[in-house]
Amino acid sequence: MSEGQPVQSLKSGPGPSEPGDEQPSAPAQDQQRNPQNAADLRTRAQIPPGPALYIVATPIGNLEDVTLRALRILEQVDTILSEDTRKTGILLKHYGLSTRQKSYRVHNEDRDLETALSFLREGRNLAFCSDAGTPGISDPGSRLVRAMRDTMPDAPIFTIPGPSALVAALSISGWQAHPSVFGGFLSPKPGRRRKFLNARADSDDLIVLYESVHRIEGLLRDIRTIFPDRFIQVARELTKIYEEVVIFSPDFSDLQWEEALKALSRKGEFTVIIGPRRESF
Ligand code: SAM
């Protein structure tokens, strides 16, 4: 299990007994020695023999937004379970990695989950990558983690944190993120979507939502109706070439609102934040 040489922890602050810190029993094997350069970081430390599951965050657009640790883990696991093998393949190719991938899709979730568990029972080290960002947030990663905890409670599950659309959108809002509600993708059924929004109409919590290009307009219209005095931030294609952030003000006239909506490109991926009320901004 050991990776040999003592390692220099990259974290600062209190010692390793702090709750939430890396524990010496497992992730210590996954720490790095004082690195000279990026290649060093990726090649020296070795993950221990499996079975283990690594939940690996990948970029939400810009390929530079990946951690050195994520690249090293992706290089060293036996198999990468990918929600989108094409997207993960682009990342692997960009960094010269050739680890084999196995498709893991929500449409074949039962079958793919069984395959993943059988790989783990064989003792493999697996990484899971969602189509973008941090797995387990509005993607099949959470079910995989739960199934592994239920059926293989002794096998470790490691988070390899990194980008997430949720955090990226909040980080540029300028709004205090607490308290806030993460709604993920609301129901595609307008009635259910409105029910979710109406239930929160009197609350001051920020609400963060994911939405696809097909439903963004309907969602924004519902938000305006249900939250007429709230700011709305729409972040589109964050970290990509056509990145765009549009703030809809509650002071917009109907015309201004329609113009802002019209100007918002109907392509790509959207993260919406229902922000503070006019008076508390
Ligand atoms: N687990 C991922 C995460 O933590 O970022 C999110 C996965 S979810 C299936 C994908 C949704 O995240 C997209 O439909 C969109 O709402 C949001 N998203 C992903 N990439 C984005 C980006 N570059 N800009 C804005 N929103 C994005």
Walk me through the structure:
It is a single chain. This protein starts with 37 loop residues before the first helix and ends with a strand. The protein has 2 domains: 27-163, 3-Layer(aba) Sandwich (Cobalt-precorrin-4 Transmethylase, domain 1), CATH 3.40.1010.10; 166-280, Tetrapyrrole methylase, C-terminal domain (Methyltransferase, Cobalt-precorrin-4 Transmethylase, Domain 2). Helix 7 (190-198) packs parallel to helix 8 (216-226). The strands form 2 sheets. A 5-stranded parallel beta sheet has the order 3-2-4-1-5, with helices on both faces. Strands 6-7-10-8-9 form a 5-stranded mixed beta sheet, with helices on both faces. The longest helix has 13 residues, at 109-121. The relative contact order is 0.12. It has 281 residues and is an alpha/beta fold. The chain has helices spanning 38-43, 68-76, 85-94, 109-121, 141-151, 165-171, 190-198, 216-226, 254-263; strands spanning 52-56, 79-82, 100-103, 125-129, 157-160, 180-185, 206-211, 230-236, 244-248, 270-277. The model is unreliable at 1-35 (pLDDT under 50).
Helix and strand arrangement:
Layout: H1 38-43, E1 52-56, H2 68-76, E2 79-82, H3 85-94, E3 100-103, H4 109-121, E4 125-129, H5 141-151, E5 157-160, H6 165-171, E6 180-185, H7 190-198, E7 206-211, H8 216-226, E8 230-236, E9 244-248, H9 254-263, E10 270-277
Parallel strand pairs: 1-4, 1-5, 2-3, 2-4, 6-7
Antiparallel strand pairs: 7-10, 8-9, 8-10
Helix pairs in contact: 7-8
The structure holds S-adenosylmethionine.
**Portion of residues in helices?**
25-40%
Broad structural category:
alpha/beta
Biggest sheet strand order reads 3-2-4-1-5
Strand content: 15-25%
The total strand number stands at: 10
By DSSP (H or I, 4+ residues per run), the number of helices equals 9
Q: Which quaternary structure do these chains form?
A: single chain
Which sequence of SSEs, written as H and E, runs from N to C?
HEHEHEHEHEHEHEHEEHE
Overall radius of gyration: 21 Å
The biggest beta sheet reads: 5 strands, parallel
CATH architecture of the largest domain: 3-Layer(aba) Sandwich
Count structural domains: 2
* Beginning-to-end CA distance, first to last residue: 53 Å
The distinct ligands, each listed once, are: S-adenosylmethionine
CATH class of the largest domain: Alpha Beta
Which runs of at least 5 residues are low in confidence (pLDDT < 50)?
Answer: 1-35
Cα shape: elongated
The CATH topology annotation of the largest domain reads as: Cobalt-precorrin-4 Transmethylase, domain 1
Summed over residues and divided by their number, the pLDDT gives a mean of 87
